[in-house]
Amino acid sequence: MRTFTRRQALAGAAAGALGAAGVYELVDRLAGGSPQRAAAGALPPEQHVLDGLRVITDNGVEVIVPPLHHQVVTGKVAVEARGLRDAQRALEDELAKLDAKYAPTPSGLGITVAWGLPYFERFVAAQWRAHAPFDRRAERPALLPTRAFPSDPSDTVLERNDVAILFRSDSLAHIAAGAKAIDALGVFDVTSIRKGFVGGGLPQKLARAANIPGADLIPDGAELFLGFTSTQSQGLGPRKIANLETLGYADLGPASYFREGTHMHVSHIAEDLEAWYLNFDFQLRVDTAFRPHLHVPDGTQTVRQAPEDAASPRSVERDYRTVRTIGHSASIQTSSRLQTDHVAEDGTLYLKGTAVPQRADFNTLDNPFFWPADPASQPQAGVHFVVFNPTSDDFHRNRLAMDGVLPDGTKLPFQPRQRGQGFNDVLRTTHRQNFLVPPRRHRSFPLAELTA
Amino acid sequence: MTRLGTGIALALTAAVLAGCGGGAAATPTAGAPRCSAKVRAGWQQLANRIHAPVYCPGWLPDPLTGVIGSRDNNINAVSKDRSYLESWVWQETGAGAAGGELHVNLRGYPGRTTVPRCRNADNGQAIPCFADARGTKRFGSIVATLYTVNQDADQWHVAYGWRYRGSFYTLSEHVAPPLDYAKVVRYLDREVRSLELIEPQ
Predict the structure, then answer these.
(1) Which among B127, B128, B175 is the nearest to A278, CB-wise?
(2) Helical (H) or strand (E) element with A12
(3) A424: helix, coil or strand?
(4) Whole-angstrom distance, CA of residue A353 vs CA of residue A385
């Protein structure tokens, strides 16, 4: 009789979960087909750029339609240091095959391979010291150890994965094929599989199907569980703005090894829908999601987020002093929007008020992960928050602003998850980690080719 | 944020004689439990005390009794403007199915048909005590509006509000384990169907 070690049994279970759809199979049935998508051009040098995204207009506002399905697979490197270069070749060959088979668009498959600090420090420490990008503005490395934030619960897990692979597509089958092909190489031990969806109307339908408390309170057609649209094109960073080099934040070192790379933060956030919809009336939801005193017609889901609408630290502080409330968008805009015009090294002009982060977050019913799953846990509304910023510090500034710690040093004296912080009151972050996304040319075991 | 209803203060607002709310006297809808003699006695006394009709519950979730003055009747309050709050609560500590809370409030605002105003605990601003209306339902003679964001003793409750003869009435229930929003709405539907109008004598 053949016997399995615990590690083999876990690997087998993870492999099965990579191809399983679970409750997310409903997305395809409820979405009524994939949206029409534009064709893609040549492969971009950036891994995090996804082409072929459709833009629609809702309530007079341009909104980007993200892929229907998302999946993040985290893992630990499963080969010894001496096998790293072989692993690099194997992974790159497989990724190249997937690139050839699927365009990097929603109708194909977008794959982003990101690497955590544990990988760089454990496997390529000397090369990392030589080539790690350095954040000039923060005077710290561009990839920082993962940290907790004032509104995080005390039990938020700061993860130490070696790698995170983000898959994005309108097709579950494409994601399953890509994830299984990479897993079959045996170069990673999977530590988690995180799945989810994005699409107008899906949150309410999926939440109802999964018997999520408060599902009936989600507005019809909402893009997110909390009822508002978050993919306004003017609220997302332009194509290259999140690159390490674009805004000049990062010193790329002697060989600019990571040029056209970026930083990725991944977290899982549980959302208490009943707390949100039973304690915040519509105006208060607008006040705390966007900014106090913003008046939009009752039931509005898509609110304009233009550069000229961007808040300043002074306006956020004024809101706090007058109504003890800050808007989620307004507070983050104090650090996520350009405070002055900026000319990038390629000559592109980015105007004051332009958004910097490129978000790739998605709704989920994982609790907290699709795999490993606690058999006793029930599906839960939440978000797998995935965002690309030029550096860790840039993400940290945005996240601190959300907690009332503004980039000019102003600290609004909120208690953790106080009601006046709006979203924070109903969110509970369970896991976090920072990653570096190399450019496409170095996406497979970065720096391994430089080892002896 | 706590899931326990923290406020117990009535929204004390000067009585405003508003236009007639209209509507016929309520009797429990066919097949619904009726207000028992034991329960009715206290409600009759309340109607007599405020000189206005009140609604006696024929059914509340077990173990709530609906009896004014009973052990589970944690609030029995009438304000100067004759508005009243009657509240029944049951709490059991313990994890999972071993614990939970049931909490039902019945209110009446004689002489006013507008939604009363409450104070926002965070900034002191006046806000509606019952807000975020999500449609109406007819239960016999009662045409009730469902409110999902409510204040004071009705915070974190789902409430039905309706008008009768120039007055505003509400029935609310707390959304807390073992109940979620959908179950609370089902309970409220059954509770409103069982209401019986008691006229002052």
Answers:
(1) B175
(2) helix A6-19
(3) helix
(4) 23
pLDDT in tens, A306-344: 888 889 999 999 999 888 889 999 999 999 999 999 999
In order of A55, A74, A307, A337, the CA distances from A234 in angstroms are 11, 30, 7, 10
CA distance A151 to chain B (A): 13
Instruction: Inspect the interface and report whether the beta carbons of B180 and A213 lie closer than 8 Å.
Output: yes
Continuous segment of H or E residues that includes residue A362: strand A362-364
Asked whether the ipTM of the predicted complex exceeds the cut of 0.95, the reply is no
| Residues contacting A281, CB < 8 A, separation 6+ | B127, B128, B131, B132, B149
Nearest to A279 among B1, B128, B182 (CB): B1
* Measured CA angle at A163 (ends A158, A169), to 5 deg: 105
Note whether B146 contacts A: Cβ–Cβ < 8 A: no
Cis preceding linkage at B178, omega within 30: yes
DSSP one-letter string for A26-66: HHHHHHTSPPP-PPP-SPPS-SS-----EEEEETTEEEEE-
Q: Residue B192 has which token pair?
A: 């409103």
Helix runs in A282-327, H state only = 282-289, 313-323
**Cis peptide bond N-terminal to B63, omega within 30:** yes
Q: pLDDT tens across A116-137, in order?
A: 999 999 999 999 999 999 999 9
Give the pairing of strands A427-437 and A157-158.
parallel
Query: Which residue in the block uniquely carries the two structure tokens 């929204």?
Result: B11
Averaged in consecutive runs of 10 residues, what is the pLDDT profile of chain B (201 residues)?
A: 40 29 57 90 98 97 96 96 97 78 97 94 86 96 97 96 97 95 97 97 94
Chain A residue with the nearest C-alpha to that of B120: A323
Window B:28-87, CB contacts with A under 8 Å:
none
Residue from B94, B99, B36, B100 nearest B68 by CA: B36
φ, ψ for residue B97 (rounded to 5)? Answer: -70, -15
Helix extents (H) in A344-417: 392-402
Which residues partner with A164 through β-bridges? A74, A114
Average pLDDT, chain A: 92
The reply to whether residue A275 touches residue B1, judged by beta carbons under 8 angstroms, is yes
A419, closest residue in chain B (CA to CA): B1
Identity of the amino acid at A261: G
pTM metric for this prediction: 0.89
What's the confidence (pLDDT) of residue A6?
A: 62
Collapsing DSSP states into helix, strand and coil, what is residue A411? strand
Question: Which distant-in-sequence residues (6+ apart) come within 8 Å of A146 by Cβ?
Answer: A117, A158, A159, A160, A432, A433, A434
Q: How many residues does chain A have?
A: 452
Which residue of A279, A319, A321 is the best one to mutate when testing the B interface, meaning the one whose CB has the most B CBs within 10 A? A279
Nearest to A393 by CA among A331, A314, A335, A310: A335
- First CA to last CA across chain A, in angstroms? 42
Measured between CB atoms, does B129 come within 8 Å of chain A? no
Burial tier of A30 (Cβ tally within 10 Å: 0-12, 13-18, 19+): middle
